[in-house]
Inverse folding.
């Protein structure tokens, strides 16, 4: 299963990068979302995956008695998901705003450097 | 002694505050008192120094680094100090006439006195680091002096060239000083002398010597770094007189002289100096005969004279050191005279072109006399001191152990060219018929004509009475570089010797050449045809090429397109990491694990892959956003399968919110266009797949390594015992790393405020109709 997950992670990264390299601003944001999902999955995978043993101490005991999934990557990813949501939501609204002002979604047209020269 | 050195700097600071008043007409000669006072101060030391009593003074500066302001006044330092302050006095006085009423006269005096202080520091320093500091200060003050006419582009360019070349030299000097300091454990030249064998036997000796050479050759304008000096003639004439003939350019010679007892007498040291000096002296003497600008002629003969000095130090014999010591004095006397005389001519007639000038003796007789005296001394005709100098040079070459004939012939050739150049610059403008346009030329003021006449006369006084400089200057110089000097007797008449014959030959050839060869613009054009091959144009072309290359480089990498930056970074990353993966990977695919795959796992993975494909290839925004949602939910389910319920919940919530937000603004978003062409998509696709593949391989490689679970174990063990919580992920976030979570929430809150603000903000009508 690890093997398949590693492939999927690579796929997420590839798709994310491809979308980020497009000229459309909307695609760039979608690419960003995909890459952050890929990064989450990568961290999760590298913390080793365990089936059916969440890191929750059973009700009657004070410590773990059997194997458990690694809690540290999970804590990291949880933070990452939340932060990336903050980024995404702001970015989405920003695109909308930028589009209203400059009337284009094309990054090349938004590039003001060219205008300065004209 | 420290005060003597600092006087120049202090005076410059004083000028900064009250300059305009201090140098105006009434007090025009006031600045002259500074070098004059210092000259008198140094003259007092002649007695002690000529009795071989050298003076050492040390002031602590940075003792922890071995950098001290330690000064030594020996024969060599004394000679240079007297030149700096003596010629300085005349130049300061001369300036009061030359730049009379100039708007920035105070500035000029300021730069000159900074230079004087720095130059004194340079020749008195015993510590290589402080020597370097003063060395750089002379370069910097020289920069300002060359570029003094800052409205002229040529001046600014020349100043930059000079600063560039001598600045590089300064850097090399620092390097050389550090290497020597590392070898010997001290920066004091005197202390280094005690470890001469250690330094010469050290593996880094060649490196140190090369660095010192680099410094000396750039400062003293040796081939192929000579070209900054003719350019530096853009400076006002007092500067050319002071810096570019008498003092600063000799700093390189001084350094070589100073280092000779320490690093000399090896074949590398001597041969390099010999060859470089030889090339410089012949090359630039030859060049000088084609010039028509008086300052141009003098610039090239100066380079040639510096070449002679380097060459003499390279010979490394007793005779050659003696010749060099005398020639420094001789050259300073006649070359400063030449320059001042040229300055007067230029100042009064507004031209320096020798083909135009003639008959000026009728309007400025004293200047003509100065020119004549300098030309005679320059040509080495008795009874000038130049004759003694020339004699000693021939003694040096004629008695040298190898190829004496060749060296002597080259020395004679050089001297013939130099004599010719001297006649052209010093005599030709004053003889013949006075052209009409110069008839109304005014007689120069006292401070313009007197200094060159005084210096020119000194050249004859020392020639007639060489004993004046023999005991006071020449012998102490030889002592200071560790040579015996008891047998030294300077005199005009040696009896009839082969050397006398050589001198007569030189004089005769020089005079014949003067009558045969006439300076003309045509010849100058002829020689400029070869400019393309000169080091100067090679350097300029290199500069131009480098600029073009930088522009091209910037255009490629800093083109303002974000995605190109990303592409370059990713490509570099792939190349760098791919390179280390060439050795092969360690991960082994465990085929047995595929058998344990459950149906729902396979289904989820398939959905995930399909969703990714849909995002990439979707034609509409809505499809892409929906596919993004599917991707998020699939990952959410993966978290459920692999024991991460908290993650699953968060992902579910966040993903839903993101999709809702997207859909909310979807219809206000632009159409989903395909903007890039087919080729670009293929290119980006390949790059992306390579990047994804790299990430996959990396993940697999990491999975093949053993896992370290110390931190996880700590949290798992103490979660309930310390924090009384059973959900470990929860406990980490809100308890163990509670502060982090709080900051994270703040970030989220700021983002929320931003979103809210942007949503509520209405467009101003100006912005709405901008496009």
């Amino acid at each position: 299963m690890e093997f398949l997950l590693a492939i999927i992670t690579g796929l997420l990264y590839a798709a994310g990068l491809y979308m980020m390299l497009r000229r459309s601003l909307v695609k760039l944001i979608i690419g960003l979302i995909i890459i952050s999902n890929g990064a989450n999955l990568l961290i999760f995978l590298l913390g080793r995956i365990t089936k059916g043993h969440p890191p929750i101490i059973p009700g009657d005991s004070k410590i773990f008695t059997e194997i458990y999934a690694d809690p540290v990557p999970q804590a990291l990813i949880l933070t990452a998901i939340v932060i990336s949501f903050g980024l995404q939501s702001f970015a989405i609204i920003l695109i909308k705003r930028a589009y209203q002002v400059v009337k284009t979604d094309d990054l090349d047209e938004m590039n003001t450097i060219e205008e300065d020269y004209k | 002694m420290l005060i003597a050195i600092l006087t120049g700097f202090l005076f410059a600071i004083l000028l900064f505050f009250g300059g305009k008043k201090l140098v105006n007409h009434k007090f025009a000669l006031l600045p002259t008192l500074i070098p004059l006072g210092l000259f008198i101060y140094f003259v007092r030391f002649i007695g002690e120094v000529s009795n071989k009593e050298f003076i050492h003074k040390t002031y602590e500066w940075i003792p922890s680094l071995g950098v001290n302001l330690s000064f030594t006044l020996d024969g060599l330092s004394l000679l240079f100090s007297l030149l700096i302050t003596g010629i300085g006095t005349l130049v300061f006085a001369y300036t009061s006439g030359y730049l009379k009423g100039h708007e920035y006269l105070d500035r000029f005096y300021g730069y000159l006195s900074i230079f004087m202080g720095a130059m004194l520091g340079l020749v008195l320093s015993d510590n290589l680091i402080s020597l370097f500091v003063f060395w750089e200060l002379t370069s910097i003050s020289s920069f300002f002096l060359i570029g003094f006419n800052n409205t002229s582009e040529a001046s600014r360019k020349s100043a930059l060239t000079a600063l560039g070349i001598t600045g590089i030299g300064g850097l090399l000097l620092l390097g050389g000083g550090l290497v020597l300091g590392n070898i010997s454990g001290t920066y004091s030249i005197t202390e280094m002398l005690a470890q001469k064998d250690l330094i010469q036997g050290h593996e880094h000796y060649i490196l140190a010597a090369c660095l010192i050479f680099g410094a000396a050759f750039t400062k003293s304008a040796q081939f192929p770094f000579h070209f900054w000096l003719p350019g530096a003639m853009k400076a006002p004439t007092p500067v050319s007189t002071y810096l570019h003939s008498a003092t600063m350019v000799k700093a390189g010679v001084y350094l070589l002289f100073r280092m000779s007892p320490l690093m000399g007498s090896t074949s590398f040291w001597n041969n390099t100096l010999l060859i470089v000096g030889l090339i410089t002296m012949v090359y630039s003497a030859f060049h000088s005969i084609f010039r028509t600008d008086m300052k141009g002629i003098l610039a090239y003969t100066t380079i040639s004279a510096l070449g002679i000095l380097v060459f003499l130090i390279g010979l490394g014999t007793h005779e050659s050191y003696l010749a060099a010591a005398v020639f420094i004095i001789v050259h300073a006397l006649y070359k400063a005279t030449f320059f001042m005389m040229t300055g007067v001519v230029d100042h009064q007639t507004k031209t320096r072109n020798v083909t135009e000038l003639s008959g000026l003796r009728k309007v400025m007789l004293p200047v003509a006399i100065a020119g004549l005296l300098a030309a005679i001394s320059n040509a080495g005709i008795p009874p000038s001191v130049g004759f003694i100098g020339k004699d000693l040079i021939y003694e040096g070459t004629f008695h040298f152990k190898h190829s004496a004939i060749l060296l002597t012939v080259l020395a004679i050739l050089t001297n013939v060219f130099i004599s010719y150049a001297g006649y052209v610059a010093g005599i030709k403008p004053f003889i013949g018929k006075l052209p009409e346009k110069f008839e109304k030329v005014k007689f120069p003021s006292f401070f313009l004509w007197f200094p060159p006449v005084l210096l020119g006369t000194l050249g004859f006084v020392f020639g007639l009475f060489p004993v004046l400089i023999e005991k006071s200057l020449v012998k102490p110089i030889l002592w200071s570089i560790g040579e015996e000097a008891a047998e030294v007797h300077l005199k005009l008449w040696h009896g009839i010797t082969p050397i006398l014959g050589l001198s007569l030959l030189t004089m005769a050839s020089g005079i014949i050449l003067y009558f045969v060869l006439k300076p003309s613009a045509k010849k100058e054009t002829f020689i400029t045809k070869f400019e393309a091959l000169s080091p100067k144009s090679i350097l300029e072309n290199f500069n131009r090429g480098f600029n073009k290359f930088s522009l091209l480089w910037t255009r490629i990498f800093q083109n303002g397109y974000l995605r190109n930056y990303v592409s370059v970074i990713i490509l570099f990353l792939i190349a760098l990491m791919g390179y280390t993966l060439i050795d092969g990977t360690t991960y082994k695919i465990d085929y047995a694990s595929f058998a344990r795959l459950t149906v729902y796992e396979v289904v989820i993975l398939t959905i995930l892959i399909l969703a990714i494909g849909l995002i990439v290839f979707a034609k509409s925004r809505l499809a892409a956003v929906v596919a993004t949602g599917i991707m998020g939910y699939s990952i959410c389910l993966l978290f459920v399968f692999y024991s991460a319920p908290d993650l699953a919940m968060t992902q579910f919530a966040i993903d839903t919110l993101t999709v809702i937000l997207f859909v909310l603004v979807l219809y206000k978003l632009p159409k989903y266009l395909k903007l890039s062409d087919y080729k670009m998509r293929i290119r980006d696709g390949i790059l992306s797949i390579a990047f994804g593949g790299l990430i996959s391989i990396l993940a697999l490689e990491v999975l093949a390594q053993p896992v370290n679970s110390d931190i996880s174990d700590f949290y798992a063990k103490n979660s309930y015992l310390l924090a009384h919580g059973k959900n470990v992920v929860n406990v980490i976030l809100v308890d163990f790393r509670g502060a982090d979570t709080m900051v994270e929430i703040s970030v989220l809150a700021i983002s929320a405020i931003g979103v809210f603000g942007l949503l509520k903000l209405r467009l101003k009508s100006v912005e709405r109709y901008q496009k």
Q: What stands out?
A: Chain A is about 70% helix and 0% strand.
